[in-house]
Write a structure and sequence with these properties.
Blueprint (H helix, E strand, L loop, with lengths): L9 E6 L8 E3 L5 E4 L6 E2 L13 E6 L2 E6 L6 E3 L2 E3 L1 E4 L4 E4 L5 E7 L29 H9 L1 H139 L5 H19 L3 H18 E11 L8 E4 L5 E4 L5 E2 L1 E10 L5 E4 L1 H4 L8 E4 L2 E13 L6 E9 L6 E5 L24 E6 L16 E11 L2 E5 L10 E3 L5 E10 L5 E10 L14
Parallel strand pairs: 3-4
Antiparallel strand pairs: 1-2, 1-11, 3-5, 5-6, 6-9, 7-8, 7-10, 10-11, 12-16, 12-19, 13-14, 13-15, 16-17, 17-21, 18-19, 19-20, 20-21, 22-23, 22-25, 23-24, 24-27, 25-26, 26-27
Helix pairs in contact: 2-3
Length: 570
């Protein structure tokens, strides 16, 4: 029996404590999909539900049992506050989309129409008395019996009695149905009230837990702030001490420079006096008749040497020669571009990256999307006529990509490094081959090689056995700060030259007070004569993670013996 307005029994979802969600939602036989996509059976919209994925969860009916499946959502699917990929749902469970997303109460409703209808009992047919009239029968009774009128009256009575019994049965059935409906509604109301109370208790517990976690994080941030303040104070103290030491050292250097300057002036004046004397003597000899040609030629040769020596003391000549040397350094400096790709060792397929239907990136070996790679750049310089180029190990082989990469369990891809170099003033990419790497301990050297070509410039190394330059010595850096992000001339790369002083020695390194920026790693450090005395390797960072570009570090070229080729050791 079905009544108007009744609903068939089945699984339903009821939203809990949030606006903008359907109040109640039936689960159809073919299941339903919950998400932000317009085609979802249950579409979740609104800015407050940003944690819901386009296709978040799917509900499925199997043999009248309800199951939920997570559809690779970004924030996960939770059943009774536990994250799950797939689970069976029971009446009273709470389904939640993400840890802070919308919630639904799961219950199974029983329809009023399932109440059993009581069948009416069979009514016993009345029997007709047969035979002659008994004693006491009147003539009228006998006449009715003879005419069949008493049978008609009996039939009417039986019909009336049957109607009364049917009305009684129908009334009892209606009362039974009404009572069953009241009981079912009361049961559902009580269960729903209990579920709401449970959800409310859990929400309060989560709120308390979130408050405790917030307090813990605030305390952690305060401790980190105090530690940073202590570190900054210590750094400031050390910096002040370092500046005082450097100031005293600089005063000594200035005093020594005055002494050197006086000696330099004395030597220059002596050469000028010598030149004047030689010029006067040569003039006298040329005017005399008894002087031999050999003596005159010898005197002229001495005069030429004196003039050449004096040229070393001419500031204009010194600066001109310095510019020539620095220009030569720039012509031998190259920008090194490194590209790391990942290859499956058995099939030799390259690792690709593509977008999923949910808008997230995923890797694959099916040649779908674009080749996944990692690019970086640095500096280097030619050191031999065979095409050998010196640079840092971390420029030639990026340290983050030296080990195999596991993409799935038991499936690895191997990194491969591709190198190209570009000379200053050019846009041509020249393939390079990795020859040797020394990154043991404090070492940071690599040797790569290109095919030599006519007119290729190279740099001369300083004496490897000579002691390191004194602090305060003038040095020059050459390379490509910020790599391809720096301003170039069209598609040509242009090397930058930076001037500074060698500040001090720090363990195996020397500190350079010059503009050191990312991209200069691997570039040469030269003296005023253009000879390589070191190689740039790092820059100072503050405790706050910022770069102190005026404080850089280089490794002396004498510590690179392990990677230098024979034809570079002259």
């Amino acid at each position: 029996m079905t009544f108007p307005g009744s609903r068939a029994p089945g699984w339903r979802l009821k939203s809990i404590g949030k606006y903008g969600l359907p109040t109640s939602l039936d689960v159809p036989k073919d299941g339903l999909v919950i998400g932000r996509d317009p085609w979802s059976t249950c579409r979740i919209t609104g800015e407050q539900w940003g944690m819901v994925s386009r296709v978040h969860s799917r509900l499925e009916l199997i043999d009248e049992k309800l199951f939920v499946h997570d559809c690779d959502s970004s924030n996960g699917t939770f059943v009774n506050e536990e994250r799950t990929e797939s689970a069976e749902l029971h009446s009273g469970d709470v389904l939640q989309l993400g840890p802070e997303g919308p919630k639904f109460l799961i219950f199974h409703a029983v329809g009023l129409e399932s109440t059993t209808v009581v069948e009416g009992r069979a009514i016993v047919k009345a029997t007709t008395r047969q035979g002659v009239a008994g004693l006491g029968d009147t003539a009228m009774v006998t006449l009715k019996r003879a005419l069949g009128l008493d049978e008609v009256h009996a039939n009417a009575s039986r019909v009336e009695s049957s109607q009364k019994r049917h009305f009684a049965i129908a009334g009892a059935a209606l009362c039974t149905l009404a009572l069953a409906g009241v009981v079912s509604y009361s049961h559902i109301w009580n269960e729903g009230k209990k579920d709401v109370q449970i959800v409310d208790m859990r929400s309060k517990a989560r709120a308390k837990a979130a408050m405790r976690e917030s307090e813990r994080r605030i305390n952690a941030v305060q401790r980190e702030t105090e530690q940073l303040q202590d570190a900054n104070l210590e750094l400031a103290t050390r910096l002040e001490e370092s500046l005082l030491t450097f100031g005293r050292h600089l005063e000594d250097r200035i005093a020594n420079s005055y002494v050197a300057r006086e000696a330099w002036d004395c030597e220059r004046l002596a050469l000028e006096d010598q030149r004047a004397t030689l010029e006067m003597r040569l003039k006298e000899l040329r005017g005399a008749s008894d002087v031999s040609a050999g003596e005159t030629a010898q005197l002229a040769e001495r005069l030429e040497k004196t003039i050449a020596e004096l040229a070393r003391f001419n500031p204009q000549e010194i600066e001109a020669q310095k510019l020539v040397d620095l220009l030569h350094v720039r012509s031998a400096v190259v920008m090194i571009e490194s590209r790391v790709i990942f290859r499956e060792p058995t099939t030799k397929r390259l690792l690709h990256s593509s977008l999923t239907s949910g808008g997230e990136s995923a890797v694959n070996l099916r040649n779908e999307g674009f080749v996944l790679d990692q690019r970086s750049s640095g500096s280097g310089f030619v050191i031999s006529p065979s095409g050998y180029i010196m640079t840092n190990a971390h420029v030639a082989v990026p340290s983050d990509f030296v080990d195999p990469l596991e993409i799935t369990e038991g499936n690895e891809v191997i990194p491969e490094v591709e190198l190209e170099v570009v000379f200053s003033g050019s846009s041509q990419r020249i393939p390079a081959q990795l020859i040797l790497v020394d990154d043991s301990g404090d070492q940071d050297f690599a040797l790569i090689k290109i095919e030599p070509f006519e007119g290729m410039a190279l740099l001369e190394l300083a004496d490897l056995d000579a002691s390191a330059p004194e602090p305060g010595s003038e040095v020059y850096l050459c390379g490509f700060p910020l790599g391809t992000f720096a301003v170039q001339e069209g598609d040509r790369v242009i090397a930058s030259t930076l001037k500074g002083i060698l500040s001090r020695s720090v363990g195996p390194y020397v500190q350079i007070d010059a503009g050191v920026h990312p991209g200069l790693s691997g570039g040469p450090v030269t003296n005023a004569q253009g000879k390589v005395i070191g190689i740039v390797c790092s820059v100072q960072a503050t405790p706050m993670g910022e770069i102190a570009a005026a404080i850089g570090y280089a490794l002396p070229i004498s510590s690179a013996r392990s990677v230098l080729p024979a034809d570079a050791l002259r």
